[in-house]
Amino acid sequence: MKIAYVSVDPGIPVFGTKGASVHVQEVVRVFRAAGHTVEVFATRIGDEVPGDLADLAVHHTKVGKGADPAARERAQAQASDAIAEQVIAYGPDLVYERYSLFSTVLADVTAATAARGVLEVNAPLVEEQARHRDLVDADAAWSALRAQVAAAAVSICVSDPVRAWVLEHTDGGNVHTVANGVSTTRIQPAPEAPGDPVVTFVGTLKAWHGVDVLVDALARAEQPWALRVLGDGPQRASLEQQAADLGVRVDFRGAVPPAAMPAALAGSAIGVAPYPVMDSEADQYFSPLKIYEYLAAGLPVVASAVGQVPGIVRDGVTGVLVAPSDAAALAAALDALAADPDARARLGAAARRDAEEHHSWAGVVERTLALAGIERAGTEGA
Question: pTM for the complete prediction?
C-alpha cells in the first residue's frame, strides 16, 4: 500500500522526545516493515531523527505562530487545506491521520480520491484546548471532528473514555478502542545496575504526572532505592527544589530521544507511574506509553490505580497498583519491591510476556487495519 501519515498538530514533532512523537514513529515503522510505502505530511518536524527513519519522506507545512489565538486557528485550518492538496497529489491508498484541531485532511482526501482513511484519536482535544489554552472557533473545531469521523473507514481511540467522547460529539460510525503499544524489539530487558535498585520515571514533567508525589515518596522511603527521572518540562525547577528541600537526591536526566530510551532505561529495577488524583474520572483518558515501555523493558511497574492503568498493570502479577496522590502508599510499594529482588524478577518477567503477547505496535496496527477492513499490516518490526 501507498500510505500518507498525516499530523496537522503543531505541538507534535514527528522527530521529537514526546510520547506522541514515539507514537508517530512506531506506527510508521510498522507500516514500513510490512513493505508499505509511507510518506509523512506534518506541521512540525523536530530534529531528533532516528537512523532507521533518516530516509523517511517528510513533507513540512508550517503553521504561523502569532499571538492572536483566532489567527493561529485560521493558520491551522489553512495548513490542513495545504496538506490535503499535497496528499491528493501523492495519491495514497490509505490516509492515516492523527486527529488534530481544525484538520479535515482525511475527509478532504477521501472525498477527492479512492483512498481509505484511518483516524487516530488520542485525546478530547476540543475540550482540552478550551480548558487549558485558548479556543476561539469551537464550532469549527467540532465540525472538523464530525467530518473526519464521518469520512474515516475507522476511527480508533486510545481508551474507552476517548471513544465515548467521540461518539457523544459525532454521528458515530466505525469507532473503536485500540490502546497504545510498544516496540518489543527496540525496548528489551537489561540487567539491573549494581547498588541500590533504580526506580525510573519516564515522562513530561507536568502536574498530571505526579512526580511531586514520587519525590515525596523517596523522602519517606525506609529501604534504599535511587530515583531516575527521564523527561523534562515546566515542573523541573520546582521538583529539583522540592528534592533539595527534602534532602533527597534525584537523578534528573532531561528529555530523552526515543532512539536513546532503551539505553536510558537500562539498569532500572522498577518503573513508576505516580498519576495523581484528577478532577474527574473523565480526565484519566490516557493510554500511557511509559507503562508499555516499562513492561517491554521487563520492569515491575508501580502505578496509580486510575483510568486505564488497572487494565494494563496486573496487580500482583506485573506490578503493584496504589492509590493516587498517596506518597506513603507509593513509598511502601517501592520499598517492598526494592527489598525483594525475587519479586522484581518474577513480576518483571511477567511484564515482558504481557508486552510481547498483548501490546506490540505491530499488533496495534494490525488490529486497526482489520477494523478498517484493510489488509494485514504484517508482523515484522514489533
Answer: 0.90
Task: Specify whether the CB–CB gap between 337 and 302 falls below 8 A.
Answer: yes
Q: In what order do the strands lie in the sheet with 154-157?
A: 57-60, 37-42, 2-7, 94-98, 116-121, 154-157, 175-177
Alpha-carbon separation of residue 44 from 9, 103, 175, 350 (angstroms): 7, 14, 27, 38
pLDDT at 67: 73
Cell 484493510 sits at which residue?
Answer: 374
Q: What is the pLDDT of residue 52?
A: 95
| Segments in the chain below pLDDT 70 | 280-283, 375-382
Q: How confident is the model at residue 286, as a pLDDT?
A: 82
Helix 69-90 and helix 105-112: axis angle, to 10°? 30
Model pLDDT, residue 253:
96
Residues 6+ apart with CB under 8 A from 357: none
